[in-house]
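Recap from last week: sequence in, structure out.
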Amino acid sequence: MARKLGIQFAIITGLLTPIVEYRAKQLGIEEMRQGFMDKLDRMKEIIDKFQLDPCEVAYMGDDLFDLPVMRYVGLGAAPGDAYPFVRENADWVSQYDGGHGAVRDLIELVVKSRGEWDWVIKTYAGL
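Predicted structure tokens:
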């Protein structure tokens, strides 16, 4: 749904695991940076690659390593189960935990803020 609206996705993780790569492939996410604790530099690479302004980017993170990126982009978001200090410093916190709908919740927020929610409902729910 979000891709059809032109929303691009990337994964930046400190982990280095085939599970993340597998999940990214399942979701069709081609932009992935694994095994990096300095996530801000990786985000800057992605922003430059797609010629974006940081204010055009939303980022969801759950731990202290995510805060520099959350502060750099236009919308720093956190899942409901993020580390408390991260939740306190997020621009927006999902009502859902990571792995349980938090990213989908953020996508819905972005789609609604762009005024495209009606298109989604008509297209996918037939209403």
